[in-house]
Amino acid sequence: MADDPPTQPGTRRMARVFTEGRGGETPGIPMSYEDLEAAALDALSPEAYDYVAGGAGGEDTVDRNREAFRRYRLLPRMLRDVAERDLSTTVCGTELPHPVMLAPVGVQSIIHEEGERATARAAAELGMGLIASSAASTTMEDVRAELDDAPGWFQLYWSSDHDLARSFVDRATDAGYEAVVVTLDTPMLAWRERDMQRAYLPFLDGDGVANYFSDPTFRSRVDGDVDEDPEAAVDEFLDVFSDPTLTWDDFAWLCEYSDLPVVAKGILHPDDAERAVDAGAAGVVVSNHGGRQVDGAVAALEQLPDVVDAVDEEVDVVFDSGIRRGADVLKALALGADAVLLGRPYVYGLALDGASGVREVCANLLADFDLALGLIGHDDVADVDESVLAD
Ligand code: FNR
Predict the structure, then answer these.
(1) For ligand 1, mutation pick of 105, 140, 268, 325 (most atoms within 8 Å of CB)
(2) Please, which residues have CB within 8 angstroms of residue 111's CB and are 6 or more apart in sequence?
(3) Which sequence positions are flagged as catalytic?
C-alpha cells in the first residue's frame, strides 16, 4: 500500500482483494468490525480482551457511542464526477494524507509482543498519523523512530509530579512529535467492572510504563534502582500517574510552556471547548475515551455539533469514540470534525497479526471511507459538511 498513489485507495484495494480471491485467497483479517472483535476475543488473553473491549461501569456509554452514529443518515448525490478523490487535510498544523489518525492506546505489550512498535510500523507504511500514548510499553523516542516520516503527536497523561509532566513534553519535542495531546478526562482511572472483577491492572505487571521508567525525573524519584527494583518503581508510577487537582490554569500554563501545539482530548461540553480555546489550545478532541471513563455519559458524537459551534472555527476539532467504518468517518466529518481517531479496531488488528494486522484494518477502513466519499457524490474531504446528511 505504501507505494500506492494518494488517490482512490478504495478502488485499488477492492480490486486487489477480488484479484487475490481469483487465486483462492480471502482476507486473513476480518472485514467486518464485529468479526474482527470476535476474532480478537479468541486471540487475546481474557484479561487483555476485557481491558480493551471494556468500559466504565455497565458500559452504557460504550453502547451509546455506537447508537449515536445510527441516528444520522447519509444522503447520496449523483453524477458529480467522483473518479479522483482527495482525502488529504491539515489538522493543528500537521499535514495528513487522510483525516484518520490512530488514537493513543496504552499498554500495547498486552496485545502483541511487538506492541507499539508494530502499530507505529503500520502507520509508517500507510503514512498515517499516530498519537503515541504516555502509558506505552515502548518509549516515545522509539515509537517516533518507528514512525519514520509519518506524522506523530504525543499524548500526555499529566502526572502529579509537574516536573515529570514537563519532562515528557520536553522529550516529545526533542523526539520530533508535532503536537502534544493532553488527555483531560482521566484525572483518575474509572470504575471498570471487567478489570475490577479480574483484579487486573496491566501497570502492576510493569506493562505500559516505558516512558516513566526511562525518564530521568521519574528515576530520580524512585528510592534505589528502577531496573533492579521494578516493584518499587511501579508503586512510584501509581503514585504519580495522574493529578486530580488540575485546573484550567494548569492547562493554560502548558499551552504557554509548550513549543508544540497543545490539543485538549476528552472535551464533551461546549463550554469546556471554549475554555480550552481561551487557554491557548490549538485543537480539541471530542471524546469520551471510548466509554471508558464515565458510565452513563453522553455519546461523544452527540456533543460534536455543539463543540464545533462553540469553537467557531478558531481551532481544529478532532473526534473519537465509536469510529468503526468509513461511513462513521463521513458522519463525523459531516458534523464538523476535521479528523477522527481510530481506537479499538486497530488494537484488534494488532492482536490478530501485529503490524500487518494493524495495516490491514486501517487500509480497509480507509478504502471503505474513500469509496463512501465518492458514492455520496464528493471528491474532496474538505467539501464534506452537514449537507451530506439527511434532515
Ligand atoms: C484507550 N484510550 C486512551 N486514551 C488516551 O488518551 N491515552 C491512553 O493511553 C489510552 N489508552 C487506551 C487503551 C485502550 C485499551 C483503549 C480501548 C482506549 C482512549 C482512546 O484514545 C480513544 O479515545 C478511544 O479508544 C475511542 O473509542 P473507540 O472508538 O476505540 O471505542
Answers:
(1) 105
(2) 44, 48, 52, 347, 350, 351
(3) 289
